[in-house]
Amino acid sequence: MKRWTRTLTMVTSVVTTGAVVAACGAGSSREASGASASEVGITKSSIKIGAHFPLTGVAAPGYSEIPTGMKAYFDYVNANGGVNGRKIEFVVRDDGYNPTNTSQVTNELALKEQIFAMVGGLGTPTHAAVVDFLNSEKVPDLFVSSGALQWGDDVEAKPYTFGWQPDYESEGKIIGQYVAENMPDAKVGLFLQDDDLGRDSEKGVRQFLDKQIVAVQRYTSGNTDVAPQIAGLQAKGADLVLSFNTPSYTALSQLVSMKLNYKPKWFYANIGSDPTLVGSLLSKFSEGKVDGASPLDGVLTTEYISGVDSTDDPWVKLWQKVWDENGGKGDLTNYRVYGMAKAYAFVQALQAAGENPTRESIVKAVENWDPSTAGPELAPFRFSEESHMGISGMRIVQLEGGVSKPLTPVLVTDTGDAPIKEDTSGQGDDAPPANGIPDVKPAG
Amino acid sequence: MASLPLPLAKVGRSTLWQSTLWRHLLLAVAGLVVVVLVLEGTSDFRNAQLAAMAYLGIAAGGLTVLTGLNGQISLGHGAFMAIGAYTTALLYQGTEPVLPVLGVLLAATLVALVVGAAVGVAAARLHGPYLAGATLALAIAVPGIALFFDGVLGGEQGLNVRLPEVPGWFADILFFLTAHDVSSSKYVAYIGWLSLIVTFVLLANLSRSRVGRIWRAVRDDEVAAEIAGINLGRARVLAFLVSAACAGLAGAVMAMAVRLTAPSGFTLTLSLTLLTAVVLGGLGSLLGALIGAALLTFLPQVVTGVGADLGLSDLQSAELTPLVYGLTMVLVILLAPAGIVGSVRGWWRSRAEKAHKPA
User: Beta A403-406 vs A411-412: how paired, if at all?
Assistant: First the structure.
């Protein structure tokens, strides 16, 4: 008898619990809910945005400074009254440059922190893991920190995503044309990261240098032994190496070529050419045997915003002031400048979205970006309803003692067979307003 | 039932509770009710975290059976998860997936099972550190395959996995029960937890069965087991197979939860993480595997949040996580060397024995 009651109690309790669960429900058929999501993350006095960055791990050197720059500029704007009375709250999460983590922290940002928009999420493989999610949740995904084509070339599939820096293909084209015109006899070797960075750039370079290329070597990010690749370039007799790689691999390629006594002319893409960071990586990797950025002297690269070495540039003066007032520890670096320039663009977008921005209105505002708006970028943005591509061009520079000397005027182009032209918009010569905060009229 | 503490058996539970299968099924139904309550009562973000806990739990459950019951150490379970995840990514992308979700889960399990069989045959010949070394090599090699065949497997950037669409009948049932609509992240959490419950019921039954007793016999004394007529090799391969299949299923759930399958998701760290979950929770215990998975899922986010609340910078709070991880591990091993569940059980048992001894 006792056994039966026990069994009965257990079964009854399970069934009852199930019934209670069911009773919580409506028991009727579903209907689509009509709630609007546009008020997420924004109040009368604040707006919350967020991004994922590698703050720890192998990609952290350099890249982890970008959010500190962004934060410093947002703090500067907040100290001056915010945007339309709203203070910008910037939430940063570490993904360690691991797409699995990116997915988790983006869930946290979008669903728990309820951010209004993601601004500046960093990395091609990392951001690719969350771009579909952000678009399906209708979270504006502004100014991705990567030059891959995929952020801007398919507006229909990714209506909420926008690039920021020049795409790798355009950079490849500009570099390719410069080499074809100025070094027509060079035997060109390509040193490429084996992902969108290498692929998109190679597409651009080959438009101009298909016949001049004697060797192509690819490395996988994460594998630190690049000796076979560099030896491969050396064996084919390449005397000009165009490198599309991240800063660590600039340092590694320099160290390996020193060991192999291989002395070609180096041309590093913008992403891998920060002299300060590469210099510190070089001395770290070589355990102090190679000092500073001196190996990068004479190296060619590109730039699309003025760096810390241009101390006379009005924008750099502004960044220095912002960093002195609102920055944390450390000096102003090119990565912090990059972050601040991006933060500046976001403040412009927020102003253009009107008094009461919604997720839809900020997307509309960026699509209707007035290319003549003053900003730190050397060439105008390409944003439109058809294209979400970022900055349209860059200039080629040579590094001398950590300072970049321009070799060409600012050149602008687009993907595909768009021609390369000298920029006539004057975007590179403008200056920030006196108070350092943009004043963009709401887009009509 | 031999391992059940005597006093409990003496009290005399119902026949239903004494039958292993029924007990596990009842626990599963209770678990299901809890899962529905928890998933419905929490936000989308928690659902996504719970989905992550589910896939870690499934893989850790498989590993705890291998290591705890059969005594084989695997440092390569991340590789089997990768195999499951890549199978899922290949079968479940684009607008017209090849198979429905259930089919994808089964296919991923099956592929991992087949690879597990091949590795298991080799592993059965190895012991202790040699086995650990061999599986370690596997963990490092498998992501490399994805880089080599980058045309099919997407290379460094990996393959995108589509968000599973919520089937109408599922949404209807849940709406009937809870009056909530099902978002796709909630649906993935349900997929994960249903998979976990099914896996755990199967694993629990297996470990209580003849097979489980054979595995324990092999673990405790090979010679004695062999004298008793047990085929050591077969027992080892079987344990490896079951465990690899679990990891494959976990990989499939992971692919759906993360929405991307890329080599950087399956580094050695993942394999070690699984081992950590098993050790933290308690070797050989499924509940322990679940607790370990919970710790690993929730700890980083909680610690980062606490760090931010304490006024630390983003960088500092991000660096706090590995520190707390390490300290937790050290503390658990110092204070509860049998893992959380193992130690609690030991304490419970000794208390019950004391209570039963006449003064």
Answer: unpaired
